Every structure is written in structure tokens, then in C-alpha cells.
Amino acid sequence: xxxxxxxxxxxxxxxxxxxxxxxxxxxxxxxxxxxxxxxxxxxxxxxxxxxxxxxxxxxxxxxxxxxxxxxxxxxxxxxxxxxxxxxxxxxxxxxxxxxxxxxxxxxxxxxxxxxxxxxxxxxxxxxxxxxxxxxxxxxxxxxxxxxxxxxxxxxxxxxxxxxxxxxxxxxxxxxxxxxxxxxxxxxxxxxxxxxxxxxxxxxxxxxxxxxxxxxxxxxxxxxxxxxxxxxxxxxxxxxxxxxxxxxxxxxxxxxxx
Length: 257
What we know:
Layout: H1 3-18, E1 26-29, E2 32-35, H2 37-46, E3 50-63, E4 66-78, E5 84-92, H3 102-122, H4 151-184, H5 192-208, H6 214-225, H7 237-256
Antiparallel strand pairs: 1-2, 3-4, 4-5
């Protein structure tokens, strides 16, 4: 099947699956209807999509004396016939009047990226309820449309939906916990044997990234740590651990790419 025919078939499938989405798969926000995360997961199951985290980034800034945490994800969804779509999702702590946890922000950014990627894949161009401000007003239920798709098939999609959702939540929590571990270790003094072990890991990971010369390695470390890392400079325990975690992340991305 040619690529053009594949995309046309994909859009026809989109119209079929939208007809079997139920009330619980939608939210009415400010008078408009949006597909929520349950609906998008069901759509992903219908297309037999797999997802892949291409990039995960956490930034912390301050503005007006207030700290702001930003999470950004880039996600790819792919079908068995080699069609794929990518999208980014961002969530910031200043979006909410009530303080939200790191896990919540990380998962929200990931969900936004995931639902956007599915929307791009289907060619629908529709927004998800995750994109809309949390101050929502729920209107009347949506009437379920009639469909010729067998109920057993729909139930199978719902099973896959739950599985996909659990996988994404687990990944999001793992990334957030890794960030928390880096923060928690700031005041810990590493014993010399542990520092030596970490240095060896750093060297091995840099080699895996193709950083072989001292100049390449100093440049990489300076960019990661946000300061000039000169020859003979002794890194603090915090810097050393931050460098190790970034290297692990970059090496993992290289293997996926």
C-alpha cells in the first residue's frame, strides 16, 4: 500500500473510532466538547499505536521572586505499517493557582505530547481536554452515536487503553523521581571510593557518546553544568552526580534514535 493510501485509510479509521467513543471519553468545557485522555488512549488502541518518549526535559526558573518548574516532553506514536507522528507537550507550575506536585506536572506534559501526537497521526487536528484550562464547566452528557463495530472489539480497545495509560504514568513517575533523587543528594558527601566509581562511569558514558578528546569532554560537561569546567577543576559531588545522570539520559536517547 502506498503512503498516500495508508494516510487515507488512517483518516477513514479515525471517523469510525470517533463514532464509538462514549460519554466518559469526552469533557464539555466552556460550551465545547473535547476528547479526554481516556478517549485518546482508546483511539491509540484502535490504531494499534505504540508510543516512544523521544525527549524529556525539566527546567527550573524564577520570575518575580517565584520559582517556576517546567516539564517538556517530545513523544512519537507509531503504527505497525510504519506511519508515525511526533509532538511536544509542556506543563508549567505557574499554570495553576494551587501548587501541583512534580509528578503531576511531568505526567500532564507527557499526556499533552501524547494526545497531540495522536491527533496529528489521525489527521483530526482536534484538541484534547488536557490542553484546556483546568477551570472547566461540565455541560450535558453527549449522546452516544450508533456504530457497526462489535462491542467485544471496543472492550479490547479499552483494555489496551488502560495498559497504555499505566505505562505512561510509570514512565512519568520514574523521570520525576530521578529528578528528586538528584535534589536530595545535594547535601550528601560521597566517599572517595564512590567518587572514583562515578568518575569511571562518566568516562565510559562519554566514550559511548563519542566524546573522546579532553576538549570534547570539557565542552560537554560545561554545557551540562552551566559553567566553565577547566583542566584540573574538581567537581563537587552534586555536579558529578548531575553530570552522570545527564550522561545516562543522553546515552539512552542515542540508543533509541
